[in-house]
Amino acid sequence: MSETLYNQALKSLAALPARRLEAPTASAVLDNPLCGDRVTVDIALVDGRIATIGHEVKGCLPCRAAAAAMARLAEGRRPAEVGELAVKAAAMLAGAPPPDPLMEAFLPARPHRNRHACVLLPFEALTRALA
Amino acid sequence: MSRLGAVLLAAGGARRMGAVKQLARVGGQPLVTRAAQAALAAGLSPVVAVTGNRAEEVEAALPPGLAAVRNSAWAEGMTTSLAAGIAALPADIDGAFVLLADMPRLGAAHLRRLAAAFVPGAICVPVKDGRRGNPVLFARDFFGEILALSGDHGAKAVIAAHAERVIEVAFDDEAIFIDVDTQEDLRMEDIRAQFPALGPGFHYLDNAAMAQVPSAVTVAMAAFEAGGRANVHRGLHGAAGRADTAYGDARASVARFLSADAGEVVFTPGCTAALNLAARALGAGLRAGDGILVTRLEHHANLLPWLALAEEKRLELSYLPVTADGRLDLGALPALLTERIRVVAVTMASNVTGAVTDLPAIAALAHRVGAVVVADAAQLAPHGPVAAAASGADLMALSGHKCYGPTGIGVLWGRRALLERLPPVIVGGGMVASLTDTAFTPLPPPARFEAGTPPVAQAVGLGAALEWMMGLDWPAVRDRERALVARLREGLARHDGIRVAGPADIPVVSFSVAGCHPHDVAQILDNHGVAVRAGHHCARPLAEALGLESGSVRASLAPYSDESDIDALLAGVAEAVRVLR
Questions:
Q1: ipTM
Q2: Contact, A66 vs A41, CB < 8 A?
Q3: A9, A105 in Cβ contact below 8 A?
């Protein structure tokens, strides 16, 4: 069961290197007051596209993995194209199909409702940064 | 479907116990009664109890529906009783359990699980993690061999001789191993049996957040709520009188627990509410520039009320630091205790490090500068009665749900002279002595602090919980808790990168696992049936002071905690290290 939630795909995402951007176009910091997780997201916009995303997570493994997935899904796309990522991620945890194969790593989190916020926090931080 | 019966062995002498073990009471019932009821509830028929030592008393403890056979040769060994029981079974039975009277955690569910695995000709043996336990279910094919046994080793030889016929039935709880051999075993099992929540595979180690509730509490609360309840301090009818008595008795129980007078005991909706009441009532007499000394060991419940008060009234808030091992740094106290300090708010035991405060020493210094000492006993009180006045505190708060009582109830104790000087914070019904169009006079304490309808049922429950606590053998409880904490520390020390934060004077052990976030560790522990708390434990200043930025995993014990809880936690930590690193 532990292996299922903490599956290899999730752990691989969480192990990806992460860093803040030195000169972001926009940033957002979001806390989960229940558990104390904190996600910082930096965005660099170039020619109307999200050229680079930086992020820093002080949080659990699913949260770190979600930040990495968020960055991969959003980079290179226009803000309007990723505006609903947070909604789609929440819908996936509620039972909808994954918005991208990359998100399949988070499917085992579905029954763990108290961990949904951990997965969603980076996506919500992205939404905040784009606002 | 097979017809299955049982032989309940209840004839022995229990030499190690120094008493007739099968008559020893666990959860209010003799052990033999519990075993017999489990067999009957599992649908076994017949259940044959074999008696011998003090046979009449043992037979009197058997529930209706059991057949009893006396074994006059019981002193010659268990096999004589086994044979007597097997011989008394009917000829058309397919198999029979051999039940021991001293396994208090075995229930009907265990027996049903074994029965479901039975096939004719089999021996069903319960097993956990490769280790075999009891009871064993024998097909009738083996009755002849059992009748031929001798000595005091039971039917193990029969099982060993027929390995190919053994069906191992997997269990995930320890009930198949746990028996009562010593007075300490009996004490422990009696405690556990009073907590219906402590079912198989449930390792509850989150007691510092909320303890489980003994049956005495739910019974007392149900009796009040369902027995014709009424409001207190208002009615002239009989039910109101009974409510007043119940509420007063609850206050008297709290007073006894605190070695205090009932008039010094204020019921509140919780410990946080009690500390807020203390802050607001004391705050009414404070002026801008007055000082409040808190500590970095505090739970937010004994920090935020003072922080809010300081912001509102422009008071100066200062912090007593902690040492690297999670204790209050008393060496820094004299310099901080200036003449401007009017209040010292301090925990009596940390909810993170388990450090117990030397409150008499702090209070002595605080009183020299005329400061009022407000003590947070939320974490200390669950570990035994507290002598409030002797502690040096002037006001003391405790929580009901951490003391094995219900939620929604807490206590603010205060020295009578101080309480009489403090103004009410919440006003309303039940707290005024006189009232005009322009003024009112509050009643004396404690009524002046209990405006409105108090949480009567919760108070009754808390009273029952504290009475239950006062009935415990605390030296024995503490000895056991110390041994369990040592077992936990030793187990954690086997892993690299695990740091225990604090001395755990009370059985509260917080630890961090390098490379593993506390929430992930707690998640994996949950998969092992282990409930712990992970995070900052509502003590952020302390987490920062101890360098625990991500928080910690906290295991907190209670008198019902046992070795199986610790071992399950350690197994979960080992898995967490393997999976997360």
A1: 0.90
A2: no
A3: yes
Q: Fold for domain B203-211+473-580?
A: Aspartate Aminotransferase, domain 1 (3.90.1150)
CATH 2.60.120.620 for domain A2-130: no
Q: Which amino acid is at B120?
A: P
Q: Chain B residue with minimal CA distance to A2?
A: B524
Contact B179, B100 (CB under 8 A): yes
Mutate to test the interface with B, among A7, A34, A35 (most CBs of B within 10 A): A35
d(C-alpha B321, C-alpha B313), whole Å? 24
The pTM of this model reads 0.92
The residues of B annotated as belonging to the active site are: 538
Domain B264-452 sits in CATH at: 3.40.640.10
* B358 CB-near residues (< 8 Å, 6+ apart): B328, B330
Measured between CB atoms, does A6 come within 8 Å of chain B? yes
pLDDT by residue, tens only, chain B of 581 residues: 799 999 999 998 766 676 789 999 999 999 999 999 999 999 999 999 999 999 999 999 999 989 899 999 998 888 999 999 999 999 999 999 999 999 999 999 999 999 999 999 999 999 999 999 999 999 999 999 999 988 777 789 999 999 999 999 999 888 999 999 999 999 999 999 999 999 888 999 999 999 999 999 999 999 999 998 999 987 889 999 999 999 999 999 999 999 999 999 999 999 999 999 999 999 999 999 999 999 999 999 999 999 999 999 999 999 999 999 999 999 999 999 999 999 999 999 999 999 999 999 999 999 999 999 999 999 999 999 999 999 999 999 999 999 999 999 999 999 999 999 999 999 999 999 999 999 999 999 999 999 999 999 999 999 999 999 999 999 999 999 999 999 999 999 999 999 999 999 999 999 999 999 999 999 999 999 999 999 989 998 899 899 998 899 999 999 999 999 999 999 999 999 999 98
Helical spans, DSSP H, in A6-115: 8-15, 61-74, 79-82, 85-94
